[in-house]
# Entry
Amino acid sequence: MTDIDHAAPRRRLPVLTGILVLIALAILISLGTWQVERLYWKEGLIADIAARQAASPVPLADIEAMAAAGGDIEYRKVTAAGRYINNKERHFFATWRGQTGFYVYTPLELADGRILFVNRGFVPYDNKEPEMRMQGQLTGEQTVTGLAREKLARKPSWVVPDNDVAKNIFYWKDLDVMAESVGLEKASVIPFFVDADSTPNPAGLPIGGVTQVDLPNDHLQYAFTWYGLAAVLVVVVAISWFRKGAKALQQ
# Structure
């Protein structure tokens, strides 16, 4: 085999290495750019939710029309009036400010006979049953103001336990099952929830205003990570090539 035959593979190796480095660099930069785009999207979403929460409440009919048109109703302020059906409340297992208990979801019967499930707020574990907080069982015509919340189409994750309907303990907010379990017809139930605001209830329970808007925004950190790895790759390759060039000159 001639020197030319030996030289050909040696020439191809740096070319192949260079191509792989460029591909890796392109991937890292693309990932960083994607995270920057996600950052702008998340900041816009957070600002939009804050604006919705700060806006004046609108009638329930407006939110219904928006939902029917496929609009985003999440966290929009709404007001509704009706009578609570206290003997049909459902209990969602929750933690509020470090305390374990339940969110109380009570059907609100509207003037037209339809039903709106309202998350009236948090009660400690020992106050799960209505007789432990009778003063908070509001009767007569009530007006509730709160945030519209979309119903879930399915269980959020396989790690979430199945709802224990027999014990009236829900681990995920299945509106259809909540309604069915207390004998309410699906057709009569408005297809979203409302989280009541922090207006105090008699004797302090349930504690309203429990809506938690937790949108992690770590995209800037991720962007720096990907761009940083791209910069490290460039530096490592540059040092490697510099050393090879210096070694070749010494030979």
Summary: The CA atoms of residues 151 and 192 lie 5 Å apart.
